Amino acid sequence: MHTNTSTDSLEYKKYLAFMRSIADVPEDEAEKMAEVFRHEKLDKGQFFIRAGERPQTIGFIISGILRLYYLNDKGDEFTKAFCVENEMVAAYSALLLEEPSRLFIEALEDTSLLVAPYESYKRISSGHICWQIINQKMAEALIIKKEKRESALLMDDAAKRYLQFLEDYPGLEGKVKQYYIASYLGITPVSLSRIRSKLK
Amino acid sequence: MHTNTSTDSLEYKKYLAFMRSIADVPEDEAEKMAEVFRHEKLDKGQFFIRAGERPQTIGFIISGILRLYYLNDKGDEFTKAFCVENEMVAAYSALLLEEPSRLFIEALEDTSLLVAPYESYKRISSGHICWQIINQKMAEALIIKKEKRESALLMDDAAKRYLQFLEDYPGLEGKVKQYYIASYLGITPVSLSRIRSKLK
DNA sequence: GAAATTCATTAACATAGGTTAAGATTATTT
DNA sequence: AAATAATCTTAACCTATGTTAATGAATTTC
């Protein structure tokens, strides 16, 4: 489902407000960028992308929850991350490498997003320093986030990772199934339930 | 130990060749960048940075091996990564956040590197598109690498991670202690020894 | 080159987390 | 509201990895 986006749609205002919290974006640049984004909705259970598909787009989440996960050959799901409002979402590695995605990105709730073709996004953002600053900052933030996740997986046991999850995604605990949280922590739902019962 | 670097030192030639494999670097930019790098050597056991220190510099490894590791409150070491020739090295998160490093970066062998103050590096690299392309590509490569490591820690058991380590760091197996490899895999040296014996 | 130190291996036992299965809740459908 | 289905909890047992300790091999020191 596609809807044109204009600079004064509520959704684009939210996008722009977020980007302007990172760097100044002149009005004409804001207008150029608005043209490449479309407003889309994903119903709960729908996919932003599936493994095997070549990603072409990036998204900005207005509301809702997405889950990024891998599926191994045995059929086990591993949740790489959750994405919530005010976050960019993409099968980033695959997009950069121009390869099929290894990730599924699925809506855990009805989700509203702005979506742009990556090529268009790159074209606009290479045209003005403000987007380059924004992209640089977002890449840095991503690296910092990944570094944190990586060190948690390396150093912390499941109970500690669970407590960290509660801090990192406030409110998500009540909204999504334990199965998803467990697969994010790298454990089974049974094990998560045990951990939760010990904490009470 | 500091030594000035010129565009025709062997070390800087190696740096430049690597960067030119990513993007065209005009001669005058190469000369500007040469001025901010100094050639340094770390003896085996010396540190590029210690946890608690504020990182100011980035390095490019000419030869040798560095180990990036965390230390938890119990005194356990966790190896985040190894760095070898033709790689940039820095306490990257801390550098971006302007915070003290949580990482130790230690030479596992006598190591030769080019080192630049991060501020100087940023100043030069913001002055020409070629460096921005290079930085962008290196950030992307870092994200891809981290994504791979993250998914391995989440999805794979220790034996599979060990086999992946052998692929990712060819030759390192014979050069560094099993203790370091084990701490990279998130297991104990005893467990690594068991895994190795089962593979034979 | 002998002694001392460090490192890798192996074994015995402990523990965290996985697996399966049975109830107990909660949510969904009719 | 009853019936069904999905989810969460608990328990019993299993497996991978941790812990400690003993031994052997390799390296360093004197």
Task: Write a compact overview of the structure shown.
Two copies of one chain form a homodimer. The first copy, chain A, has helices at 10-20, 27-36, 92-97, 118-125, 129-155, 158-168, 172-175, 178-185, 189-199; strands spanning 3-4, 38-42, 47-49, 57-63, 66-71, 77-83, 88-89, 104-107, 111-117.
The outline of chain A comes out as elongated
Overall pLDDT of chain A, averaged? 94
As for the CATH topology of the domain at 3-126 in chain A, it is Jelly Rolls
**Low-pLDDT segments of chain A:** none
CATH architecture of the domain at 3-126 in chain A: Sandwich
Strand order of the largest sheet of chain A: 1-2-9-4-7
CATH class of the domain at 3-126 in chain A: Mainly Beta
Chain pair sharing the greatest interface: A-B, 27 and 27 residues
In DSSP terms (H or I, runs of 4 or more residues), the helix count of chain A works out at 9
SSE succession of chain A: EHHEEEEEEHEEHHHHHH
